[in-house]
Predict the structure.
Amino acid sequence: MKTLVLTDNVIIYEGLKKIFDDYNYDHVDFAHSHIKSDIWSHEDFRGFDKAINVKQDQEFLINNYNLIISGHCKQFFPKKLVNQIRCINIHPGYNPINRGWYPQVFAIVNDLPIGATIHEMDEKLDHGPIITRAMIEKHEEDTSLEIYTRVINEELKLFKENFKEIISNTYKTITIAGENSHFFDKEDFKNLSEIDLDKKVSFREALDFLRAMTHGDYKNAYFIDKKGDKVFVSIKLNKENG
Ligand code: 0FX
């Protein structure tokens, strides 16, 4: 029985691959989802033969693997799969505070802490016993991209530090009590994107919103101009001596 790493994220794939190589551990397969993403054109993958549909392929997975690691796999793992094999999720948020989609975006907008979590999966999304988690810093001049980059580095650091325990199933999990669980999905992000030009907000709220919606070249926040066209908005912040 082997380990399977399922990932749809190029940076996470390359980071995890390096960690497995550094530990000289080759009892592992890497695959991506059947859902098309940038990783399909990565030189290490040759298209559809490495594509997994967790719902349709669950018997194959159960019969061939004893550990599945989701490193930003864009599929919801079915009940039977998470109950029959150990499935672990590497999540770009500090759980249970940042469950769901694009956690750093909602952490900026809602002034929440942010970090990374590795947890065993259960039947709920981004939920289950926590193996390890860590918060990262978040500054007033950060956009989504700066925080995301820090989160990804933390996810890989946590995975590397806990590699042996994760592979050999010798960690102790933590159950968190008394922390609020926040959950945001794709639809929440979409709903955030259109700017109502007549809405009254403070400068702080406006800046926080634009920082949250600024992520490199992505066209996220927009308003509709008088001609009915979308105008995309992002922000640039420069800290003195930064
Ligand atoms: O792979 P990933 O970093 O993570 C997402 C979810 O946030 C995560 O909770 C889930 N477990 C995983 C399977 O999928 O997402 P991404 O590579 O699509 O996007 C990375 C960041 O880029 C995102 O946090 C915000 C930014 N982004 C992305 C898109 C596609 C935007 O700002 N706008 C966009 O349209």
Remarks:
- The radius of gyration is 19 Å.
